[in-house]
Write a structure and sequence with these properties.
Elements: E1 4-6, H1 9-21, E2 26-31, H2 37-49, E3 52-57, H3 77-86, E4 91-93, H4 97-100, H5 120-123, H6 127-142, E5 146-150, H7 154-166, E6 172-176, H8 196-214, H9 220-231, E7 237-245, E8 259-269, E9 272-282
Helix pairs in contact: 6-7, 8-9
Length: 287
């Protein structure tokens, strides 16, 4: 069957009604388009866990601040649909802003709470409220059994999973490991904005995370110092934050914390803002 593209809520619901009535499992991969191998890894996993796969492509204005790159964000719809068809995706949901927010300025939003104001949320006010609001809408529209996200957006994954648990939404979150280029740079739709010098400098993020991993047995301070030392002196990399957080709460760990933790990093390379993360085991404790 050729891929089907729905531009309205009613078209998607009508198109997937037979599968739902037959009890076929459904997976949703939410994206903003400009797809790359990281997205395709999500799609391939979706094909493994569900009978019918829906990929949404929607550049959500609610998650962009007034000084952010909404208009600059790459849009490659035709190429994206062609790639998804090759991967066996059943439906692409590609609504307009007017379709998703027909009343204009939306009045009802999902709020992300304390964690939503930290890290990415500290410099991108309201970003995660916008993310959770659109994800909740997409879940209501598509009604999937499984929704898939990439580990690169670790804070987003945590907050979506927390929303689903808090609101008792009947969907399972599947997290797929970060896909990287051969040199270690985490794949991102924003990588295309980097010139050759900036791309080389951007490798500092993944190298810093490797240094953090290597120092995990010596504790939090050593992890932070090792990562910072990698980025020190690189003029075109402006560090935004570097944090070590507990996976259960996503709050910064204490100095004497032992066990599994997540190292978060964000930096601006030239004019492009990038994020990355890795899991470590502080003190070598794998509990």
């Amino acid at each position: 069957m050729p891929i089907a593209v729905a531009e309205t809520v009613s078209a998607l619901r009508t198109g997937t009604a037979d599968a739902r009535a037959a009890g076929r499992s459904i997976a949703l991969v939410p994206t903003m388009g400009a797809l790359h191998d990281g997205h395709f890894a999500l799609v391939r996993r979706a094909r493994e866990v569900a009978d019918l796969v829906i990929v949404s492509i929607f550049v959500n204005p609610l998650q962009f601040g007034p000084t952010e790159d909404l208009d600059r964000y790459p849009r490659t719809m035709d190429a994206d649909v062609a790639e998804l068809e090759q991967l066996g995706v059943d439906w692409v949901f590609a609504p307009s802003v007017a379709e998703m927010y027909p009343s204009g300025a939306i009045q009802t939003r999902v709020t992300a709470g304390e964690v939503g104001s930290l890290y990415e949320g500290r410099t991108r006010t309201g970003h995660f409220d916008g993310v959770l609001t659109v994800v909740s809408k997409l879940l209501n529209i598509a009604q999937p059994d499984t929704v898939l996200f990439g580990q690169k957006d670790a804070q987003q994954v945590f907050l979506v999973a927390r929303m689903i648990a808090d609101l008792d939404l009947p969907v399972t979150v599947e997290v797929v490991q970060t896909v990287r280029e051969q040199d270690g740079l985490a794949l991102s739709s924003r990588n295309r904005f980097l010139d050759e010098r900036e791309k080389l400098a951007a490798l500092g993020l993944s190298i810093a995370l490797k240094a953090a991993e290597s120092s995990a047995h010596r504790g939090v301070d050593a992890v932070l110092a090792a990562a910072q030392s990698v980025l020190r002196g690189e003029g075109i990399v402006e560090l935004d934050y570097l944090k070590v957080v507990a996976p259960e709460t996503f709050l910064p760990v204490d100095d004497d914390y032992l066990g599994k933790a997540v190292v978060l990093i964000a930096a601006r390379v030239g004019t492009t803002r990038l994020i990355d993360n890795t899991t470590i085991f502080l003190g070598g404790m794998r509990n």
